[in-house]
Amino acid sequence: MKRVFLDLSRCTGCRSCEIACAVQHSKSQNLFEAIFETPPPRKRTYVEAIEGIPYPARCMHCAEAPCVEICPVGAMYREDQFETVRVNKDRCMGCLMCAMVCPNGVIGFDPDRKVAIKCGLCRSRLKEGMVPACVESCPTEALRFGEFEELERQRRLQSARVVIAALRTAEQASLPIYKENTGGE
Amino acid sequence: MLQRRYDNITQSLFDRAQTLGIETGLDRLERQEPQCAFGQLGSCCRMCYMGPCRIDPFGNGSQRGVCGATVDTIVCRNLLREEVGGAASHAGHARHVMLTFKKMLEGRAPGYKITDREKLMEVARGLGIETEGRSDEEIALEVADKALEDFTRQDDGILNWMRLRAPEKAIKKWEKLGILVSNAHNEIEEAMHRTSMGNDADPVNLLLGALRIGLVDGYAGLHIATDFQDIMFGTPRVRKIEASPGVLEPNMVNIAMHGHNPLLSEKILERAGRLSDEARAQGAEGINVVGVCCTGNELTMRHNVPMAAHNLQSELLLLTGAVDAMVVDVQCIWPGSQRIAECFHTKVITTEPFVKIPGATHIAFEPEEADQKAELIVKEAIEAFTRRKGRDVFIPEGKTTALVGFSVEAIIDVLKKINPEDPLMPVIDNIKSGNIFGAVGFAGCPSIKLRHTGMTEKMVREMLKNNILVVTTGCTAHICAQAGFMNTDATEKYCGEGLKAVLSALGDAAGLGAPLPPVWHMGSCVDNSRIASLLGALADRLGVDVSDLPVAGSAPELVQEKAISIGTWLLALGLLVHIAPHPRIMGSPVAVKVLTEGLRDLTGGRAYVELDPQKASEGIIEHIRERRKALGI
Hints:
By secondary structure, chain A is of the alpha+beta class. Helices cover about 30% and strands about 20% of the residues of chain A. In chain B, helix 5 (about 115-125) packs antiparallel against helix 10 (about 205-235) and helix 11 crosses helix 15.
């Protein structure tokens, strides 16, 4: 299962992901043409900020997605190939129940087609072996795309590096640190 | 990952970089991509510390900066600042040459002299300076003071050089728009002032300001630079040269001159000629000075120096391992060059006190001590050669020949052989008959983003096929020379029948025994002045405005801010100016509307953005067709 992972410490709030997302959802898929399109293309990712710390909010493609559970017409569904949550625009009637139950607040509304819109993890790009547009556009690699297990392992290793470096420092300083009781005392 | 393939010679150098594990601009570009959308659209404002502010181009997010500036205000302010970057570069270049000229007259710069007395007299008479019964030095000093006045006057008089070089009809047009300019430095100051936080918020007013800076660039920059350079170093004449990185010589001391100002490159060339024995004593077969970028254009059209590389190839040239010293002055010098030089024995020598690169050798080049400093620099190159001697070098094979040096004077000389009384008449007759359907000036840079598409070459071929004469300057001239567009064979190979016939007749008249080439090398980027002079003369002869002529300008691969300010000058003159890649105005509906449509009613000019070479060519040809129709030909 591939997912977009967010490293909050790297996000600078540049909003490149928002623009790349909108361009990806334009007719032309080209920035300089997309800006002249009517209706304007709509983004599915949202950069918010709390106390100056940016936070790029996007659909997390929940395994037990409340939006899927609650949709009265079965428009929200789980797609199997990339294990994403998608919206069937032909079925959607724009009631926005999905938005009301989404804990992440990442379901939007397309006033032209009168349907819910959300991140689809750039399925068309994934099929061509590319990463999602937001990930490609991120200049600081705050957004990374990969196998969930591998990304988690990297996270564990990152954490391990910090702990082990601290341990070394403590050893060199001969600080009293916990050692496993080898018995015999 | 993007797959870009360049022309064979350029690609061979990129391949070598990859083999050697050396980073080039291409690696850096790929790491930069995708590039920031706000930056590309011009809709990011960093003018004050309430920001930076960005405007969402899709209307979802913020539509105004913190201060309330709209995207139109932001884009137009940014554009004006880009214009200042370009105009300041050219005004600085021109002022440097003019002040050296003055020092020379005062006996403080003994390395320089008046080479083209005829040009001096032409300029003096044009400025209304009395030439009868006075010494050359007296006249020259007054010419210099007239130029200095264009940087110092505080009255409302217009630039002396605008009066000297701009068509009367154009000056009237600008007067009506209220954009006549009087002092380059004041204009640059005012443009910076009005774009800082809390000043001009009116996008149309800012765009008029951009036109003003375009005029500063054209007259206080380009024209002054060209005129003084011609007087000091000679007006270019047509000559045959070689082009491509293949002009480096494995067994010679190779000095690559890179940058813009002939004040430096002329002296290095002269000293290199005198120090060849010293080079031979160190085991070299002599000293080979080659030209890169615009100073390369200056040298080639006055002294047959081979044209080694355009700007994109400037750092690649060092990958040959055959360059002993790359001597640079100002503008378009990539800091990355030094990192490549460090992989070899190559010395990068900076010479301008305000242009330094960490790790490079700096030898301040002062005009007062031009000869001594030039000698020092050439000796550095010879010393570097001794460390290179015996090592393998990689010099890409394949050179092209090119005829260069088509100054207006050189062109008129050829035309006079056909019609001594009215030299422009043969051109006008052929334009009327359609043998010459029109003319397009290709100027500017090689874009690393577009070079692999062969944008320039494709457009030039399309023009020639349609009997459109091409003139070119700057790094675009290097591209055309390397593509083989500047030799006599190209006329047969690429031109439509009408243009072929005209160029054959001109070649015969010039005593060449072959046609003139279809692409005319008119000089460096400051020499876009020459193109404007030629157009002005044609328009005057026909009694029309420059904007009525069946001509256009194109910067098919622009890189530098200088291309923006030159392009804006041409817009003010009334030309169609084709540009690629996208200028950073696309975020502003007002800027796009005014520059691509509205300006037509004000100056006759129009910006035309098109990245597809075929479509761009068709757009230009259509414009020329419309202009011909309006002239009734």
